[in-house]
Every structure is written in C-alpha cells, then in structure tokens.
Amino acid sequence: MSSLSSLLKAMRRPFGKPGLGQKVSCPVCKTPAGHLDSVDFNKTCEELRGLKLPTSGVLVRYYLCGRCGFCFAPEFSSWTFRDFEERIYNGGYATVDPDYRLARPKSNAELLATTFDGTKIRHMDYGGGSGLLSETLRAKGWDSHTYDPFVDRSIRVAQLGRFDLVTAFEVFEHVPDIGALFEDLQALVEPNGLILFSTLLSDGEIRPGEPLRWWYASPRNGHISLFSKESLSLCMKQQGFKFASASANLHIAHRQIPGWASHILAPMTVPAPVR
Fold it and tell me: HSE-up of 213 (CA within 13 Å, CB side)?
C-alpha cells in the first residue's frame, strides 16, 4: 500500500454484508459469488517475512466469483469510517506494512522518474497518503500532485482536474467499492492519458474449494479486494480502457497511447514497483 488508501467512498457505497452461506453479487461481473474461506483478522502480509501476530479470534469471510475470479471480503462493509482508522490504519499499521511510509513511495518515485520525462506531463498519485511520492518527484522538476480520499476528506475529485499520468500504487486491493474507484480514475485521467497502478494478481494463488492461504489475502493490511487477471481486465474493458500487465504486480490502462509513453507500451519495459 502506498498510503492510508482509498476508503472514504467505500464507507458510503459498500458491498453489503451477507449472511453465512448466502451468495452475494460479484462487484465486477455481477455473477453470484459464494463463500470461499475465512481467515483470522490478524493475518498480515508480513507473515511472508516471518512476522505473525497473535490470532484475534475474529474471522473475516472472503467470497470468490466463479466466473471472473474476483475475491473480496464484504464483511468490511459493516465497519464505520472510524473502525477502519482504529482497527487497520492506526498507529500499529507500520508493523504490518513497514515499507509504506518511506521505502515504497521513494522507490516508486524513482521508478517513475527513470521511466517518464516528468517535465512533459501532469501527474496525480491517487491514494498517495502523506504525499511523499509526489514531493520526491516535484524535487526532480515534475508537476506532481497527490490525492487520497482517506486523507483529503474535504476535497472532491471533480475539483482536481485531469492528469496525463495517474498512478495508484498498492491501492486497488484496499477498496471495497470498485465502482467508486473507477469513477475517480475516470474523472482524473485525460482521455489520452495513462493509468499506471500496482496490485498483485491472484492467478494460481486462489482456487475454488481450497483454503485461502495466499499471503496477500491479509485483512490486517486492509487487503479486501483481490483481483485475478480476468477480473481486472473486465473492469478495464467495462470502462473503455485497454489493459496490459508489465508483471503480476504492475499494470497499465489507457484509451489511446500517449506519445510520451509509447516507449513503455510496445514493448512493455516498466521495472517492477515495491510492494
């Protein structure tokens, strides 16, 4: 996650909380999705590095769409905005995501600076938290801005204008309202602009009828929307975007290929971002 993430709209327009055993509509393709597995709330991404928190005793249910492979945790819709602040994006968050304050924004700023000529484009980092990524780019001469619905609560997206390049590093997996996320992206990107974002694809990691053991499926990190390549591609197609992946974690969406980005789109040569 590059920031405290995009959760304000999620509080206004959540998935809806299902009862146990009840199927819910997939937010991507509207196909009924059934319960896949439940994991303890304290499951974190840092278990990959050996950190394991004590179990909380609170189980979070994940649902899986059998058609597009989108996996999501609708139970978070019962939380208030304050619940997210107190239980996930709190003073202990750095323990479960130690890279989000400094290492990730600085590394991703370097990725952008070495990939694009920032003097030719207007840039928005969506879900940018403290704004360190944009601050780092501005020091390099970029026209870079930050917007995070969780942080900038008094600002509406319509007030921000449009941008040539919109980035969203480690944001998609935190957003329970996929429709609201794409409304924001549509409003921010120029018609011939580029969206560059990171989220780890679930292909080969999540399967129907099998336990959800994937390290990325971690409620304590706020990872509640897990995309397969098919579900992500379908989301982009629904919005009129062409979609391509540079890796399992880095993706690009556009309607037209902007001249300033033609060197990365054919062939795809963007370096991998920091997760």
Answer: 4
pLDDT tens, position by position, 10-66: 333 333 455 555 679 999 999 999 999 999 999 999 999 999 999 999 999 999 999
Q: What CA–CA distance (Å, rounded) separates 95 from 78? A: 25
Cα–Cα separations (whole angstroms), residue 255 to 48, 189, 190, 240: 36, 10, 9, 7
The answer to the question of residue 271 being in a domain is no
* pTM reported for the whole predicted model: 0.88
Range of the domain at 216: 8-265
Domain membership of residue 116 (yes or no) is yes
Cα 151 to Cα 173: distance, rounded to the nearest angstrom: 18
Give per-residue pLDDT as tens, 151-200: 787 788 889 999 999 999 999 999 878 888 999 999 999 999 999 999 99
Residues 189, 193, 198, 204: is their CA dihedral positive or negative? positive
Cβ(275)–Cβ(248) under 8 Å? no
Residue from 145, 154, 242 nearest 191 by CA: 242
Listed residue (174, 196, 201) closest to 251, CA to CA: 196
Q: What is the 3-state secondary structure (H, E, C) of 145-210?
A: EEECCCCCCCCCHHHCCCEEEEEEECCHHHCCCHHHHHHHHHHHEEEEEEEEEECCCCCCCCCCCC
Kindly report the CATH number assigned to the domain that includes residue 73: 3.40.50
Q: Which two tokens stand for residue 134?
A: 């944009």
Total number of domains constituting the chain: 1
Q: Cβ atoms within 10 A of the Cβ of 91, count? A: 7
Our CA dihedral for 11, 44, 75, 58, rounded to 10 degrees, sits at -130
Largest Cα separation within the chain, whole Å, is 54
Q: Is residue 87 part of a domain?
A: yes
Assigned domain for 274 exists: no
